[in-house]
């Protein structure tokens, strides 16, 4: 029977251990880095900055674009006036009238010639009218349905330094994204370590509180026996019971704090906050202590702080923005080439077919007068650059103060450790 009970208890213990997820400090760090949403966001920001840098570089390269259009016109364009069309269509009749007038005048002098000239005028009238009609038809543009298309190539030659400044800014932006990821990683690891060791500390305090409570409960039991024997007073018993109640309340607070700390650690590691976990260092009686050095070099601290490096990059970006603003008020030069097709054909008497041509040229834009707008905007950009510089100096001073505070805390902790030992 005793063997059966032992096996049952052993089985329950194994099941409880298997149900708990055993974590070490390194595994907590790994899980936190893999599952932290802020780090995942920062990773995507690095990718976005990389693609932005690639996109900025394309501004050095020629751009090719195509466009097309169709337009239905109510009326077609005309190369000659309506009166000219009428005269051309009826030029045979006009010539015939001239012949008849000429024949009448000649008939007065030479009676036999009048009929000959009159007949000749009648004979040429119809062919000339037909030729005039054909000429008017040939001069039609037929531009009621117009199609046009163009392929354009543009190569920037000089943009006032704007393209180079944009490329530098995109390069700095990528580095800032990397620094932000590094800063997030450092803060996450620090938060993970603090929460991990907070769980260890609360576990040790809980064990101490349990031992203290057991001691008080045993003392209370002995005291009740002494009261029954008349050796101790009821006041002594009540005083001890108050201590027992206080110890029970302290133990309850520690249990709640330990449970909440484990939930927080699960949340940091990307686990279900209600998942039971067991830390490897929870049951260690003696935890190895690494004594940090209290000697530090402030320049090393500056070099190792991602936020300071980010501010330095932001200062560089602000300086490049000054150049971008200045470039808006400098000449810009671009090489352009086009191939244009139209229907009707503009190069062969407006025939209804597609024909095209190419052209090449240089476009230059020179700002001449803007009432000082460029000067004001450049000064504004310079002020923004100085703001970034002053922010960097302010952060440096705060970092130096923080480093000194950390050194003092290390010294205090070392003194406390020596006294505890």
Textual characterization of the structure:
The protein is α+β, with helices and mostly antiparallel strands. It has a domain of 59 residues. Helices cover 67% and strands 13% of the residues. The protein is built from 11 helices and 6 strands. The chain has a 4-stranded antiparallel beta sheet, with no helix packed on it. The longest helix is centred in the middle third of the chain and has 68 residues. It is rod-shaped and about 180 Å long.
In short:
It is built from eleven helices and six strands.
Q: Which outline best applies?
A: rod-shaped
Major β-sheet strand ordering: 2-3-5-6
Return the string of H and E elements: HEHHEHHHEHHEHHEEH
What percentage of the residues does DSSP assign to strands (E)?
5-15%
| DSSP summary: helix tally | 11
As a whole number of angstroms, the C-alpha radius of gyration is 48 Å
Average pLDDT across residues? 84
How much helix is in the residues? 55-70%
Number of strands: 6
| N/C terminus separation | 47 Å
Oligomerization state = single chain
Most strands sheet: 4 strands, antiparallel
- Uncertain regions spanning at least 5 consecutive residues: 1-18
What is the SS-derived class? alpha+beta
